[in-house]
Design brief:
alpha/beta, Rossmann fold, 17 helices, elongated
Length: about 325
């Protein structure tokens, strides 16, 4: 079930007896848990009826004892087991999952990895409650996720601003949402967020960032690429050579794949490479500038500078100097 539908049910006071929340993406687990906390009990009921336990410090008997307790001057109890990935006795909770209390909402937060779906405990929890697997947002879907989240906040967002956020912040959803909250406070509702808003309120330069460097190299814009590298050299906190090399490797790997895709329409490339159609269009343009021989040579150059950035075969060049030399070799 989608996390949004789960939260919709929670807000409608349609609670499950058990919420077994597990998976690699902690953001959705926290989102559901916070919704339960906000809606399960009134504020004045929480002192006596809400218990938060932690995996490292808990045992199965204590947890089940809490979950079987009776509410005091309230309709229900709320018991949350946080950091359940550190609790080794989840299978020992199976007896409770088989016969959960009608007066308790029991929430298990098992983060950063999936729980084994073959285990008896999770199968039993699914029969008498709800099991939610929190999946990471795929890289190729990240821009769409950002766009959708921004719209849910009451804003629009340009494609370039979306791609800039995705490139700079990566797939850490909590970090992305925290940065977007700045815009929620500082920018008027209904505004279409663009790269200027991103630069002024989040601090990501609209002109001097890895995304723009890739675009410059992609079309062999030597002047622009050199300006960006010079900016990075004087502002080392703006990015790192490791991020540049990683992003460049992804770019040239995709270009190589495009040369061997029979259908070179933007839609076909987007589907095959699992990228946003906007990105697919830019990659297609770049593939006409770099032939397979040059792409293979560039991938070898990236490997060479990856080693140099880690001190292998390099004893004197700074990361800024290496980056400048790297960008020159990629375009010439």
């Amino acid at each position: 079930m989608d996390h949004g539908l789960i939260i919709k049910d929670i807000k409608a006071k349609n609670f499950q007896k058990i919420y077994f929340l597990h998976g690699e993406e902690p953001f959705f687990i926290d989102l559901i848990t916070n919704a339960i906390i906000e809606n399960a009990l009134e504020e004045h009921e929480r002192d006596f009826n809400q218990t938060v336990l932690y995996g490292k410090d808990s045992d199965a008997l204590s947890i089940m004892s809490e979950a079987k307790g009776y509410p005091m001057m309230a309709e229900r109890r709320l018991v949350i087991l946080k950091e359940a990935q550190d609790f080794r006795g989840i299978e020992d909770l199976t007896p409770y999952f088989e016969s959960p209390s009608d007066q308790t909402i029991f929430v298990i937060n098992y983060k950063y990895k999936k729980y084994d779906s073959r285990k008896k405990s999770i199968k039993t929890a699914a029969k008498n409650g709800l099991v939610f697997k929190s999946e990471k947002v795929k890289d190729y879907k990240l821009a769409d996720w950002i766009s959708s989240h921004v719209k849910s906040m009451g804003f629009g967002i340009s494609q370039k601003a979306t791609m800039l956020l995705a490139e700079f912040l990566g797939s850490d959803l909590s970090k992305i949402v925290n940065e977007l909250e700045k815009l929620n406070i500082l920018v008027e509702k209904g505004t279409t967020i663009n790269e200027v808003h991103i630069e002024e309120n989040i601090g990501i330069s609209k002109d001097y960032n890895v995304f723009e460097l890739i675009n410059a190299i992609a079309i062999r814009d030597v002047t622009k690429a050199n300006k960006i590298v010079d900016y990075f050299n004087h502002n080392p906190k703006a990015t790192s050579i490791i991020m540049v090399i990683s992003s460049m490797f992804n770019h040239f790997s995709r270009l190589m794949k495009i040369h061997f895709i029979p259908n070179k329409s933007r839609e076909s490339i987007a589907g095959t490479l699992r990228v946003h159609p906007f990105v697919a269009g830019e990659l297609l343009t770049s593939s006409k500038i770099y032939n397979p021989k040059k792409i293979a040579a560039n991938i070898a150059v990236l490997h060479e500078y990856d080693l140099k950035s880690k001190g292998i075969g390099n004893t004197s060049f700074t990361h800024g100097q290496l980056m400048k030399e790297l960008v020159y070799r990629l375009m010439h």
